[in-house]
Design a protein that fits this description.
two-stranded antiparallel sheet; alpha/beta
Amino acid sequence: MFNQSAIVDLLNDYGTLFDQIERVRTNLTKRFHGADDAIEGVLLATLSDLPCLLYGPPGVGKSLLIRTFCGMLGLNTQQGTEGREYFEYLLNKFTEPTELFGPFRLESVDGVQELRRVEDGMLHTCRVAFLDEVFNGSSAILNTLLALMNEGRFHDRGDIRESNLEMIFGATNFPPDTEDLLAVYDRFVIRVHMDNVERVPEELAAYLYTAAGAQRDLDEGSELFEDLLTRILEFRESLSERIALSGSASGAFDLNSEAGHTFLSNLSFIVEKAKADGVGSFSNRRIFQMCKVLLVRRLLEARRASNTNPALSFTDYQVIWKYFFDKPGVSSEGFEDVFDTTFAGWDDLR
């Protein structure tokens, strides 16, 4: 599926970045008990340049996880409007578009009074945005978000401008189930379900110890990774270049190899079975985005294991039903047909 030379080159060029990402993962895991999948989803979305949605009941730590992660990137999540790089807002049905994109004021231009938007520190001018209860926004807000997430552009009264956004996160208690919201839901490529810890003594004890330690870390200050966001952007650009070269000796995808043929067969099975079971539908765009995330996952695992083998493992494939299906909690049971006998330990892994 993946070209080993591209894997090796990316690991050589960005090994230090992957090590820092692993430190971020470890740091977050120590603070958020039972949130390993959510943490991995946030990291994969960030490295893959894809919007990420956390959903689950109130109180499971969705907002705190995003704020903590952005703080580790060196973003000031508490600063005022001027010079702001991080934007956060809790949406409700009464939220006005000006609250996100900036109010208007009258300015004199060549002696003519014109309405100009005050944009400094607003959503589309910041580097990272987090929208809590994102689906509560009005149709005007959600339509603008569609363009921001899909095109990286801000549409304002017929004027189209490039957005500064480099990452966008959303959170909600429940995924939308109405037709008018599904388009925005689709733009959140990686979707992570978070839930309360299991109500048994062992899990509750583990959670309480973790929560107490997280509070202590917040009181004492947390580890920051200066310039990490800049290095992530550099990696994204290099990754896109490698993907664009697919088919050549230095490209990321090698679909003509035996491993490539196996992957295409597995992918076809997964997509068709998900559709038949009513748990997921995959557009052309979504399939491409999924392959990109699988590549990032393989790079992280290769760095962790000091092994440049480009072959996808069972845990790599798990990314698909963790983050890409439309419904939460889809079991890997029934997908075992995509794995041949060389994947040992199936019974333990599923």
